[in-house]
Amino acid sequence: MTTLTATEPDINEIHAARLNHLQALEAESITILREAVAEFARPVMLYSIGKDSSVMLRLAQKAFYPGKIPFPLLHVDTSYKFPEMITFRDEYTREIGAKLLVHRNEEAIAAGASPYKLGTQNCCGLLKTRSLLDALEEGGFDAAFGGARRDEEKSRAKERVYSFRDAAGQWDPKNQRPELWSLYNSRLRKGESIRVFPLSNWTELDVWLYLYAEKIPIVPLYFAKTRPIVMRGGAMTLVHEGMQLFPGEKVEQIKVRMRSLGCLPCTGAMRSEADTLPKIIEELITFRRSERENRAIDHDEEGSMEVKKREGYF
Amino acid sequence: MSTSVTTATEESGVTRTFEAFLEAHLEQEMLRFTTAGSVDDGKSTLIGRLLHDTKSVYEDQLAAVQKSRVNRAANGHVDFSLLTDGLKAEREQGITIDVAYRYFSTARRKFIIADTPGHEQYTRNMATGASTADVAIILIDAKAFAKAGGLLPQSRRHTYIASLLGIPHVVAAVNKMDIVDYSEASFTAIRREFEALCAQLGLEGVEMIPVSALEGDNVVTPSARMPWYSGPTLLEYLETVPLARAETAGPMRFPVQLVLRPDANFRGFAGQVARGTLRAGDRVMALPSRRESTVRRIVTYDGDLAAASYPQSVTVELADEIDLSRGEMLVEANSDAAALPDVSNRFRAMVVWMHEEPLVVGRTYIAKHTTRTVRATVRKIDYRVDVNSLEHGPSDAIAMNEIAEVEFETNLPLFFDSYKACRWTGSLILIDALSNATVGAAMIVAPIADTSTGETRRPALVLLPGRADLAERVQDALGSCGERAVVIDDALIPDSAVTAVVRALDLAGVIAISSRKLTAEALAAIESFAPRAVRVEDGTDDEAILNSLTEQR
């Protein structure tokens, strides 16, 4: 972008220099963030600590600069998150001066909810969906920003930027408000809420390019490193403290990275040599595999993300 | 930064070619396009083909499609439509029933596709997808054309909607050329009819490309089976079509989204430039106050800018403390009248209706225009457009998926351009005040000159001195016309506060009703902000008062 200079700006030059696609996406996302803050009474940003959240957080800093981010961040902690994620979360949010709320479904966690015991659908239902809905209700939030992108999964391709949820937090794919131009309808009745997705039009490649161009810090798990791994359910699972090995499982040291960050038991690692952002981007354009593939939850059954979304999962 | 945080500064071991790739990608332009076609024109297949042939489909997605239980493509072809048909219900019915967004990029551009359905009752979805598009691809089925002996009504409708939504570029993809033996005669017959339609609609620079989505001819790869066609493939067209937009040039418009006041020393107006260019040092005028100031700084997180153009999101600091808030607008000062937006509360607009409950004359809706939310009352339906024949006809109501020209009156003035001149400042959405559903989309044609003497203007205050008995009936009468009115004869509102109360209600679009006997001084104060809008009804017959109020509504 042009910076302020003493010389007279050349108007022809300005017209010639069209925004590149990242700048255009950034401008659109900032408008969405500001619009929601202007129109909703109590917005909150869902902060998952992942790379998309990191981009969304930077966009929020930009949208309200020179002010601070005018809403809290909410992290739904399932208790199965990678320890590196929690460290990063606490340090980074403190550094940028954001207000952080952490919510856990303590009842379910105390009862020992786990994907092994309940299956991934039920476990996500209790520790993510239920926990999220409770947190939104307790906080009285009428709008929640989420980092979901339309390119992630088929059912998300039809998602609106403003995704309307009824009083039970549920999504009805057949009853979404038409969305034209950049005119978003924020009107709600009591109990209803809207999920706002500022990154709707970003692709995975856009996110990586933006992290690179903007020098945005991300959790080190995204970068390749030799880590202890066991093969479980066909996926490479990172060995962590307190993890119980099943009979026959063998720990190997493999150079891996995480392509997306979910919960320890359900997020598979991938073999990789990519230990810098340019290498990750290079890897991304060489391997054409969609990022959610390494997450167990999308493959439970055909259309499983859509089932979760109807129930209130992001 | 703590040590556990890895930053993006290391670049060792990265090849030169890769750096070139990065640089190229960071400089890519973005193009949004929409696709419109009738059921079975092969639209999803075309998009699937574009994604597949530009290597935008991930291996696992392709594998999932190949093993899917559903396959509508014959002869062992991969059913590319499965790549884009998103929701379960749609997969089962075999039709796309909503707008789906898809993304892909080539070395030249990043593309956003709004894939919209072609089924009759889903005009609203096409309008939705078209509203932000730079290019519209209209699919025409060569086989169906041959069978029907002409363009299907849906193709006319799609082309009309593309012209109505002001999409800068329209390209017709004549599909299923494989079924008509790649015949030039078939293509020419379609071209003649389509070009006539475009001429009728005033659409210029329309391209036509013969393709086969199923076989891949002229989608990404030039077809060897149509040597008579020498134009670009569909992808070449999308990569090279010039992106100049009306919004880039033209007089500046900056609707204020938010006032940022992080501390006592800074007051900035945040927003997205809707048209033209805003420069530091420019004289600007605020609407509606018409107060002027100078742009002191254009502030962003990445440093101050000398100038910001459409569609940049920035924060503007002005040299003077002028009254300006969300829903108001900055424009260039000292410009001639033609460069200023229209400031009016009455205008004509083309409406696409999107809800089961029809639009009716006399109803008041919530209207969102730029960052401004007002109440808009339907005064008149000028005509309805038959989207198949494009003929105009009279109508009292507009049903779902119908299009009409409508006259609106808003409770507060809007600052607007015609939709033709600027999409961002010429468009609005209509919201039902009870259900909160988005019920319509409107594109402003022109303001309506205020030829009245003020009699038809919404009054700020209906004053009925000494007639407390009539106040409630007046309130009901106004309510039945879609107005919001409130009696302000509350013991907690002293006479000295009436001016302020009337002003506050006027700003909120609510009519005040009072049976007080106000002083001439108080009346003059009210008239100062609501000229011609105060009614003093004295000694008039009750019915005459009510009639005069409701007739003008």
Describe this structure in words.
The complex is a heterodimer of chains A (314) and B (553). With 314 residues, chain A is an alpha/beta fold. Chain A has two domains: 18-206 and 306-311, Rossmann fold (3-Layer(aba) Sandwich); 219-298, no CATH class. Helices cover 36% and strands 14% of the residues of chain A. Chain A is built from nine helices and ten strands. Chain A is globular. Mean pLDDT of chain A is 85; it is low at 1-16 and 297-303. Chain B has 13 helices and 28 strands. Chain B is globular. By secondary structure, chain B is α+β, with helices and mostly antiparallel strands. A seven-stranded antiparallel beta sheet of chain B has the order 7-15-11-12-14-9-8, with no helix packed on it. A six-stranded mixed beta sheet of chain B has the order 2-3-1-4-5-6, sandwiched between helices. Helix content of chain B is 24%, strand content 30%. Chain B has four domains: 18-240, Rossmann fold; 253-339, Beta Barrel (Elongation Factor Tu (Ef-tu), domain 3); 342-447, Elongation Factor Tu (Ef-tu), domain 3, CATH 2.40.30.10; 461-551, Rossmann fold, CATH 3.40.50. The longest helix of chain B is centred in the middle third of the chain and has 18 residues, at 184-201. In chain B, helix 10 (468-480) runs parallel beside helix 13 (542-551) and helix 11 (498-507) runs parallel beside helix 12. The chains are: A alpha/beta (314), B alpha+beta (553). The interface between A and B is large, with 90 and 101 residues.
